[in-house]
Amino acid sequence: MRVYNTLTKKVEELKPREAGKVQMFVCGPTVYDLIHIGNARTFVFFDAFSKYLRSKGLAVEYLQNITDIDDKIITKAKTERKSAKDIAENYEKEFMADMNALGVTGVTRYARATDHIPQVIEQVKKLRDKGHAYQTKDGWYFDVKTFDGYGKLSGRTAEMAEDGVSRIDDGVGKRNKADFALWKHPNSALPPDSSGNANALMRMIDGEPAWYSEELGWGRPGWHVEDTAITEHYFGPQYDIHGGGQDLMFPHHEAEIAQQESASGKAPFVNYWVHVAFLINKGQKMAKSVGNFTTVRRLTEQYSKEIIRQYLFSADHRSPLEYSEEIMESFRFAQDNLKKTLRRMAVYSERGAFNVDAPGSSDRLSAISAEISAALEDNFNTASAIGLFNSMVALVNQLIDEKKFDAKAYDVFKSTLDSVNAVLGIIPEARPVDVPSDIADLMRRREEARAAVDWPGADAIRKELESRGYTIDDTPYGPILSEK
Ligand SMILES: [Zn+2]
C-alpha cells in the first residue's frame, strides 16, 4: 500500500523494515481531562489503519504512550487539591472508557510515562554523555544546535521556534530558544538521596512528583523524551511508523527525531511519519484552548460508535474535517437508512428472495469491492472507500427492486460488508426485530385481510400495530416489521 510520508513529503510504498511485521507508535493522550473529538480523530484513524494492516496479514505491534506526568496534570492536581497520580489515574480510566465507546481496539500496548522513568533517565544520560544535553537551574535541556537535522520533519528551524504556538519550554539560561527540556527539576530541590536507591524513586516535592537520579538530580521527564524512551525500550532505536495529530509535528515530533537520532547515532529514527489533520468547528480549529470543543463523552452519549466513526472517516486524514450538529445528524440519517437496507436484506434472504438467476449482478458488485480495496491501498483513503461502499448499497437496493439480486451477489455484498466493517467499524448492527407472538398474530390477520381484499380491515390492523410502536413496509417479498 502507499502512504503519505510527512518526512519525505511524498506518497510512498509502505515497506516494513522486517518483512511481514510493522512497528507503529502513536502519541497518546495527556491524562488531565476528558479528550475532545479532535483528539479522537487521530486515535480512531490509527485504530482502523492498524486493523487494515493486520487484515493484509502483517503482524502489527501498535504502541501508544500515556502521558501521566506533565505540567497540566500537576496544575490540575493543585487546583483540585488532589495528587497528580489521582488525576492521571482517573483520566486514564476515562480515556480508556472513551476508546472503548469508540470501538478503538487496535492498540497492542499502552505504556505510561511513569512506568518508564529508568529508560528516560538512561536516554537523557546518553544525550548528556554525547554532548547534546546541558543543565540549567531548571533542568536538563537538549541543545538543538548540536543536531544538524533539526527541522527536517516540519521544515521549521530552531530560529523559527520563536513563533512556536505549542508547548515550547520556557526556561532561564537556555542556549537556544528551541532547546527543550529533557529532565525537569522540581521548583524546590531536595538534597541528593542517600538511600542508595538511585533510579526511579518517586517523591512528592511540593506537589510535584520527582524521581531521583544520581547523575541528573531530582526531576521528571520532559514531554518529548518519554516517547523516545518508550519506543527505544520496545522497538529499539529505529522503527516503521510514527503517527499523531498534525499539531504534534512541531515541536514535539521534531524533538523526538533530534533526541533519538542523537542518542543512537542511527537515522532515520522512523521511516514513515503519518499525521492526521484537525477538526474545524465554527471556522476554527477545534482545541481545548479555543473552547470550541465537544468531548468524546458527550458525542458517544448522543451517537453510536458506528455513526461517529463514519463521520470521522468522511474526509481524507490529511484534510481538516468540519464539525457541526447538522453534519452529525446527517450521518445518523444515513446510518438509519443503511440499517433499514440491512434489515430488509436479512428478511428477504430468509424468505428466499435471492433465489433468482441474475448473471452479471455479482460481477458489478465485485468491481465496486475491488475499487474499495484500491482506495484503502491508496494512502488509506477512507472517505473514498465509504463513498464506494454507499454506492454499492444503492446498487444492491436497485438490484433487489429489479429482482436481479441473486445468492452470489448476496455473498459478494456480505463479504465486502464484513471486511469493510472489520477495518472501519462503521456498519450498524441490524438484528431482525424480535416479534412477540401477539404482534405476529396481528401481522398474520392483516395478511389474511389483504388476501381477502378487505382493505378497511387491513388498515385497522395496521393502525393497531402502529399504536403499539411498530411500522410495516409492504414489499414484493411480504411485509417487513420495524420498531418505531
Ligand atoms: Zn508524543
UniProtKB/TrEMBL annotation:
The UniProt gene name for this protein comes to cysS
Has keyword Transferase?
no
| Domain (Cysteinyl-tRNA synthetase class Ia DALR): residue spans on this chain | 374-426
**Highest taxon listed in the record's lineage:** Bacteria
Q: Which residues bind ATP?
A: K288
Q: Motif range for 'KMSKS' region?
A: 285-289
Q: Which Gene3D superfamilies match?
A: Cysteine-tRNA ligase, C-terminal anti-codon recognition domain, HUPs
Which InterPro entries does this chain map to? Cys-tRNA-ligase, Cys-tRNA-synt_Ia_DALR, Cys-tRNA/MSH_ligase, CysS_C, Rossmann-like_a/b/a_fold, tRNA-synt_1_cat_dom, tRNAsynth_Ia_anticodon-bd
Subunit structure, interactors included:
Monomer.
Q: Which family does it belong to?
A: Belongs to the class-I aminoacyl-tRNA synthetase family.
The record places domain Cysteinyl-tRNA ligase anticodon binding at 434-474
The taxonomic lineage of its organism, from the top, reads: Bacteria, Candidatus Yanofskyibacteriota
Question: Among its keywords, does the record have Nucleotide-binding?
Answer: yes
Enzyme Commission number, as recorded: 6.1.1.16
Recorded hits in HAMAP family, A to Z, give: Cys_tRNA_synth
Q: What is this protein called?
A: Cysteine--tRNA ligase
Keyword list (alphabetical) reads: Aminoacyl-tRNA synthetase, ATP-binding, Cytoplasm, Ligase, Metal-binding, Nucleotide-binding, Protein biosynthesis, Zinc
Among the GO biological process terms of this entry, one is: cysteinyl-tRNA aminoacylation
Localization per record: Cytoplasm
